[in-house]
């Protein structure tokens, strides 16, 4: 295999143990009892639970057997699968069909003649995914002890909205309290595909994961190979020496573990965003959702520490930062002479940046979300106009709710649209439903079918529900960083007592 630079990339780099130990300083560890629980023998009950949790209707792997097949015949297959897995564990390698994945390529943005603009998704055999699901279920019980609260990807009880709330409120807090901070949004090139297996195993050991569970993880990747589905056929098998399979139940947890040493090092070495003493909170240094990492810096020293940490992570884990796609913004009143210098061709902005698909920062930056939104929704609905005479009322609601309105929810959880926009958007959905005369009030359409309505989504009500969920999360499940940030804003607004009264 060759990179665009014509360098052959067939073998992973050799990483010295001294380098790894330097990188693993400060990581939390499981207790011996927790490690033993994590590594205990797999049981038939665990396999049964994993099969029950698997979604139906998903694409199968190379053997063509979907999850529905295993669910239907589980009473006959369960014990046999357990025996096969235990025998494979003893050999240190899974059967050939389990080791082979079919890579399906999904297009991303940009020039599709470039390999980097395609996202590989691994279609794995169901028996492999059952094993992976069992291991993931076990790891979920302990993952919160290992991963910092500023990483939310695949961690039970955490959400991507925690990252968005934190980043959104950072701009307001810095403005209200006259705080200066720089934010660098780091783009990592092919983050999942570049994870080094040796580094991953060493990281699990550094977290105190025992040999038994570690051997199961190694078994998942031992002698792994893939075939690429392209042009209606399959390529020759290619050995997989690094990377975490996207589509595997345990992949998200393993990636969160693989990147945690970098995040831990940044927390310990950067000054970050120092909040006022009234917040009684440690500095905010990073906000991470998988490989989408935003770093808060205070000056040139933080920039240098960031570069040193990323260079060390590159050597240890084969990671690579794409500075061309990374972004940086200065929040507050920075004089020209005090602006830290950035690596590569990265330059400072002062309006805001795009975080996890949402524009945050100044008012004109946030306004980009709403510009042309009405026209985009009209265009989406217009594609279905020709089919309206054949669509039942239920079908029209399905199109309006799931194919059109659903694109609003991610941004509406975080941002408030301009006055009047939601009414215009709602009118589009109602007009699409009736395609002519409105026979009953819209309020009736919003009711559930069981109450005489049609279940058409009420955008205003859904947005209000998002606000209540945010308030409830603030009181019962917020990350410490966002909690401190939100309290500063609420104290200034005098609203914290009101929210506590509503939910306590």
UniProtKB/TrEMBL annotation:
Organism superkingdom: Eukaryota
Classification via InterPro entries: DNA/RNA_pol_sf (IPR043502), RT_dom (IPR000477)
Cited PROSITE patterns: RT_POL (PS50878)
Domain Reverse transcriptase: 87-364
Record-given protein name: Reverse transcriptase domain-containing protein
């Amino acid at each position: 295999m060759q990179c665009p630079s014509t360098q052959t990339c067939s073998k992973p780099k050799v990483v010295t143990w001294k380098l790894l130990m330097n990188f693993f300083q400060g990581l939390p560890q499981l207790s011996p009892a927790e490690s033993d629980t994590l590594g205990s023998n797999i049981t038939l009950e665990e396999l049964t639970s994993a099969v029950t949790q698997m979604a139906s209707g998903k694409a199968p792997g190379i053997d063509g057997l979907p999850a529905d097949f295993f669910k239907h015949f589980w009473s006959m297959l369960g014990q046999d699968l357990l025996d096969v897995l235990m025998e494979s564990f003893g050999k240190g390698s899974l059967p050939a069909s389990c080791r082979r994945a079919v890579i399906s390529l999904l297009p991303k943005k940009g020039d599709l003649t470039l390999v980097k603009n395609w996202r590989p998704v691994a279609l794995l055999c169901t028996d492999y995914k059952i094993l992976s699901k069992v291991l993931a279920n076990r790891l979920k019980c302990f993952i919160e002890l290992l991963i910092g609260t500023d990483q939310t990807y695949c961690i039970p009880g955490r959400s991507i909205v925690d990252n968005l709330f934190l980043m959104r409120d950072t701009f307001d807090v810095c403005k209200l309290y006259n705080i200066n901070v720089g934010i660098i949004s780091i783009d990592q090139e092919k983050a999942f595909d570049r994870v080094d297996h040796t580094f991953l195993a060493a990281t699990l050991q550094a977290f105190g994961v025992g040999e038994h569970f570690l051997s199961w993880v190694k078994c998942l990747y031992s002698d792994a190979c893939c075939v690429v589905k392209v042009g209606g056929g399959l390529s020759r098998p290619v050995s997989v020496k690094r990377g975490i399979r996207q589509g595997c139940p345990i992949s998200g947890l393993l990636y969160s573990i693989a990147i945690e040493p970098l995040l831990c090092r940044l927390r310990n070495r950067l000054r970050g965003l120092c909040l006022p003493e009234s917040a009684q909170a440690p500095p905010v240094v990073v906000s991470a959702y998988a490989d989408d990492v935003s770093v808060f810096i205070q000056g040139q020293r933080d920039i240098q520490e960031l570069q040193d940490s990323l260079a060390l992570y590159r050597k240890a884990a084969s990671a690579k930062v794409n500075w061309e796609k990374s972004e940086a913004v200065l929040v507050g009143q920075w004089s020209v002479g005090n602006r830290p210098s950035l690596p590569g061709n990265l330059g400072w902005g002062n309006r805001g940046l795009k975080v996890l698909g949402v524009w945050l920062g100044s008012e004109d930056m946030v306004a980009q979300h709403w510009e042309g939104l009405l026209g985009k929704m009209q265009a989406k609905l217009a594609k279905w106009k020709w089919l309206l005479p054949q669509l039942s009322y239920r079908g029209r609601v399905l199109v309006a709710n799931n194919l059109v309105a659903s694109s609003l929810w991610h941004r509406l959880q975080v941002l408030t649209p301009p006055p009047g926009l939601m009414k215009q958007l709602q009118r589009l959905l109602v007009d699409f439903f009736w395609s002519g005369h409105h026979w009953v009030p819209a309020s009736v359409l919003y009711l559930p079918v069981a109450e005489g309505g049609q279940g058409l989504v009420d955008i205003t009500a859904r947005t209000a529900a998002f606000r209540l969920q945010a308030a409830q999360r603030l009181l019962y499940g917020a990350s410490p960083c966002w909690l401190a940030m939100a309290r500063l804003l609420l104290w200034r607004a005098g609203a914290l007592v009101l929210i506590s009264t509503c939910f306590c």
